[in-house]
Amino acid sequence: MNEVNPSAALAGKDVDLCGVPLGRARHACAFFNSKEDQYRALMPFLTEGFGKGDRNFHIVDPKRIAEHRRILHDAGVDTDKAAESGQLVIKGWDEAYLLDGRFDQDRMIAMIEEILQEGARGQYRLTRFMANVDWAIEDRPGVMDLVEYETRLNYVLPKYDDAVTCVYDLAQFGAETVMDIMRTHPMVIIGGALFENPFYVPPDQMLKELRERARRPERHR
């Protein structure tokens, strides 16, 4: 893995992830083995922006919203004040990825773009977007489009200065899926450290590969 070049950070839109300044590439996948590891690594990213005029938009397991809010509060965030002002938004994935009980990648890409634009209209310096993706292990219509969705985000996110982190529980996903997800993110967090991702594949190339896979005859079992 390649270490991130701190000199590549954007002037006036600086944001650290795992203690390292992000450059132009701000779409990261983060792999963790536990919730404790996740919060230990991401907490500065989730909290430091409140003093810098950044908006925080978090999508989590709907059963963990109260827990997530409590953890932020314990880390020093005035969650009530931040939520009232709009600087903090916490949604369950049933209000986003699995709206209407299914995953629609077109709808979700449009939703993320609207979230980022909404932050800019609210005069925030940038949006720190964090989403847990464990919803993708559920048996719901559309979840098989996850890799294509992550790939297509790379057409949208470079238009913005916002930092987007997609969080995956390694215990929930197989090795093949993890490798595909890694290949759709220019930045990756492994072992709590941020790296430029040498396995990243540009979206045109990745989508072509996915189409070719879909045309292959099903293997004999």
Structure description:
It is a single chain. This protein is of the alpha/beta class and 221 residues long. It has a single domain (17-215), classed as P-loop containing nucleotide triphosphate hydrolases (Rossmann fold). Helices cover 36% and strands 20% of the residues. The chain has helices at 35-47, 65-74, 79-85, 105-121, 146-156, 175-183, 203-215, and strands spanning 2-3, 16-17, 20-21, 27-32, 55-60, 88-92, 127-132, 163-169, 187-190, 193-196. The strands form two sheets. Strands 1-10-9-4-8-7-5-6 form an eight-stranded mixed beta sheet, sandwiched between helices. It is globular and about 55 Å long.
Strand order of the largest sheet: 1-10-9-4-8-7-5-6
How far the N terminus sits from the C terminus, by CA atoms, comes to 36 Å
The gyration radius over C-alpha positions equals: 17 Å
CATH superfamily: P-loop containing nucleotide triphosphate hydrolases
Q: Helix and strand succession?
A: EEEEHEHHEHEHEHEEH
Mind describing the biggest β-sheet?
8 strands, mixed
Summarize, please.
The chain has helices at 35-47, 65-74, 79-85, 105-121, 146-156, 175-183, 203-215, and strands at 2-3, 16-17, 20-21, 27-32, 55-60, 88-92, 127-132, 163-169, 187-190, 193-196. With 221 residues, the chain is an alpha/beta fold. The mean pLDDT is 93.
